[in-house]
Write a structure and sequence with these properties.
- The protein has 157 residues and is an alpha+beta fold.
- The protein is built from 4 helices and 5 strands.
- It has one domain: HIT-like (HIT family, subunit A), CATH 3.30.428.
- It is globular and about 45 Å long.
């Protein structure tokens, strides 16, 4: 899959912790990036419209950020959510910032559909059904087009 125009790449930032997965790797398919934040798409067959907004700086808690960085993070999360609502018309968008498994600040932004494999359970919950045709085939546009829409919206966020 090719990245949208103006492709970005991930380079571990100064101060990256060697043992932290999100300090060392993008965490998924890199869609957009800035000096402080990146947005990746999680490559998950059950949830193809699953993005993460990730801090490029190792920080554990949202409240650890200065207020300007919290506001910027919120704008990025809301921007990704709006693109998902407008482009793929999900039943619901789930937002989560758990960090239990990877204690590096990141927000999950996941388009959920009444037909998805786990709905109405959380994506980490028990599977409710098999999805045929595959989830990606049910989206209103291709993943390339969705990634491009997310990147374009974030360029203005």
């Amino acid at each position: 899959m090719s990245l949208p125009s103006n492709p970005v790449s991930f380079v571990p930032p100064p101060g990256a912790l060697p043992a932290c997965e999100l300090c060392q790797k993008a965490g998924g398919l890199l869609v957009w990036g800035s000096a402080d934040w990146r947005v990746i798409r999680v490559e998950d067959a059950d949830f193809p419209a699953f993005y993460r907004v990730v801090s490029n700086r190792h920080v554990g808690e949202f409240s650890d950020l200065p207020i300007e960085a919290r506001e910027r993070c919120t704008r990025l999360v809301v921007t990704v959510e709006r693109v998902l609502l407008e482009r793929v018309a999900p039943t619901k968008v789930n937002l989560a910032a758990l960090g239990n498994m990877v204690p590096h600040l990141h927000w999950h932004v996941v388009a959920r559909f009444a037909w998805d494999s786990h709905f109405p359970q959380p994506i980490w919950g028990q599977r409710q059904r098999e999805v045929v045709p595959a989830a990606v085939a049910r989206l209103a546009l291709t993943l390339d087009a969705l990634d491009a829409a997310v990147a374009a919206a974030l360029a203005d966020a």
